[in-house]
Amino acid sequence: MTGWRLGWMVMPPGLVDAGNRLAQNLYINAPTLSQLAAVEAFDCEAELEAHVARYAENRRVVLAALDDMGVTSRAPSDGAFYVYADVGRFTRDAEGLCRRALEEAGVAFTPGTDFEDPTGPVGGSRVRFSFCGSTRDVREGMEALTQWWLKEFEEVLSTVQKELS
After folding, report:
1. Residue 128, φ and ψ in degrees, nearest 5
2. How many other β-carbons are positioned within 10 Å of the β-carbon of residue 9?
3. Among 20, 108, 111, 155, which has the highest number of CB atoms less than 10 A from its own CB?
């Protein structure tokens, strides 16, 4: 609740005492109206649980689609609503891949060069998918991307299948 002098912190248990000593400097003189509004805003557990359930389903949809696409090397995706994946077996040009997918399949995702050293060896072979939209949008997007991907990388996938056999 930026500007309202209200909020919360998540910290390791060993830092709670120190955090409590500093906390008064963060929220001293919060207006009564802000405090009352915050109580209402922070008391929406049902809404929070609905978001958590939606993100879990969206994550499942994205991971299943990536499996279908042969994109199996991924960072754990249990800290946010993103999946960071290695597409190096398909391309070393993540920016070009993202551009083509947007133009040809109508699906946007982000090249790894936005998150790593663009001159380094791995940013061009990694991409990030977001699953923060509605489940319907995420499902439709991943279906469109999967169809496009399977055509775009048919030869690579055929080679990978032979290697796995």
Report:
1. -125, 130
2. 11
3. 111
Sheet holding 126-130, edge to edge: 82-86, 126-130, 110-111
Is the distance from CB of 116 to CB of 94 less than 8 angstroms?
Answer: no
Q: Give the mean pLDDT of 107-116.
A: 91
pTM over 0.70: yes
Question: What are the residue boundaries of the structural domains of the chain, listed by start?
Answer: 1-43, 46-164
| CA distance linking residue 100 with residue 25, whole number of Å | 50
Identify whether the C-beta of residue 109 lies closer than 8 Å to the C-beta of residue 128.
yes
| pLDDT in the model for residue 28 | 67
> What residue has token string 């048919």?
154
- Alpha carbon distance 16, 79 (integer Å): 21
Contact 105, 144 (CB under 8 A): yes
CATH number 3.30.559.30 is the correct assignment for the domain at 46-164: no
pLDDT in tens, 113-125: 888 876 777 878 9
pLDDT value of residue 159: 78
